[in-house]
UniProtKB/TrEMBL annotation:
<feature type="repeat" description="ANK">
    <location>
        <begin position="63"/>
        <end position="95"/>
    </location>
</feature>
<dbReference type="Pfam" id="PF12796">
    <property type="entry name" value="Ank_2"/>
</dbReference>
<protein>
    <recommendedName>
        <fullName>Ankyrin repeat domain-containing protein 45</fullName>
    </recommendedName>
</protein>
<keyword id="KW-0040">ANK repeat</keyword>
<dbReference type="InterPro" id="IPR029048">
    <property type="entry name" value="HSP70_C_sf"/>
</dbReference>
<keyword id="KW-0677">Repeat</keyword>
<feature type="repeat" description="ANK">
    <location>
        <begin position="96"/>
        <end position="128"/>
    </location>
</feature>
<dbReference type="InterPro" id="IPR036770">
    <property type="entry name" value="Ankyrin_rpt-contain_sf"/>
</dbReference>
<dbReference type="InterPro" id="IPR002110">
    <property type="entry name" value="Ankyrin_rpt"/>
</dbReference>
Length: 272
């Protein structure tokens, strides 16, 4: 018995994927809101775009928008997270200075703003017209976006103040090695307290962050100012006088005395 090969049914060919006009695989997925297809292009070794997709993550189209800009305009949260995970630059700006944060703010996409801020988007970046994302949101009457960006900035400023005070504590060039044990404890405990407050207060308002920042400065600023006041050097001044009192009766050579005097002078001008 012979088998008729020609009569056997052929396996159906896989349909050829057609991208939307004027798109690449990344922007196609953004416009189609297809996170899984984007993920597949990165992870499937058989995917036709596997070798090129990474180079397209931060590419800009004819309109000057990156895939993340487009995603932010459309407010597609999961796609934004996937793009950032795959290497999208959150602070990348077009020729006019607009970033993804500006696009989300202009279109009132608050949830997208939260994703970008969590990914360390810079709140202070300005467009060619001098607008931060907050000012862009304000211009388009996106009140909710303005409120969120104010909140994010207040939180950021508190965290930056904590970092700055902690660096001051450990930097001998800045604190001149003149902090007392009590001063060090005050700075350490204050920074720790504020850090824990940020971590444990999930419902903090903009004003809460501002108040915490002011309170931190009120505690630590007097310590910093004290270092720059002449009165803090009385102990060192007395020490110099005591040294002079001790060495004067001794029979040092004139050259040696000149050297000692010079050293004491250098110490004294540092004190003041």
């Amino acid at each position: 018995m012979t088998t008729d090969v020609a009569s056997q049914p052929e396996e159906p060919e896989e349909p050829v994927e057609v991208l939307l006009p004027n798109t690449n695989i990344v922007t196609h997925c953004v416009l189609k809101n297809d996170v899984e297809r984007l993920r597949k292009s990165f992870e499937d070794d058989e995917d036709p775009y596997k070798e090129t997709v990474a180079d397209l993550i931060n590419s800009r189209g004819r309109d000057g928008k990156s895939p993340l800009d487009l995603t932010s305009t459309l407010g597609r949260i999961e796609l934004a997270k996937e793009l950032i995970l795959r290497g999208a630059e959150v602070n990348s700006a077009n020729i006019k200075g607009y970033t993804a944060l500006h696009h989300a703010a202009a279109w009132g996409k608050v949830s997208l703003l939260k994703v970008l801020v969590d990914a360390l988007a810079d709140l202070q970046l300005k467009t060619a017209h001098g607008e931060r994302a907050r000012e862009t949101a304000l211009r388009y009457n996106q009140t909710e976006c303005v409120d969120f960006l104010d909140w994010a900035e207040a939180k950021s400023e508190l965290l930056e103040a904590i970092r700055n005070h902690q660096e001051f504590l450990t930097d001998p060039e800045r604190n001149q090695g003149r902090l007392t044990k009590e001063d060090k404890n005050i700075i350490t405990n204050s920074c720790k307290e504020k850090t824990e407050w940020v971590e444990n207060t999930s419902d903090a308002t903009t004003q809460d962050f501002i108040s915490q920042r002011q309170n931190l400065d009120e505690i630590i600023t007097p310590i910093i100012q004290k270092l720059n006041e002449p009165g803090t050097n009385k102990i060192k001044t007395r020490t110099i006088i005591q040294i002079i009192t001790i060495i004067l009766p001794l029979n040092f050579s004139s050259l040696c005395m000149e050297y000692i005097t010079l050293c004491l002078y250098l110490v004294s001008i540092q004190c003041f």
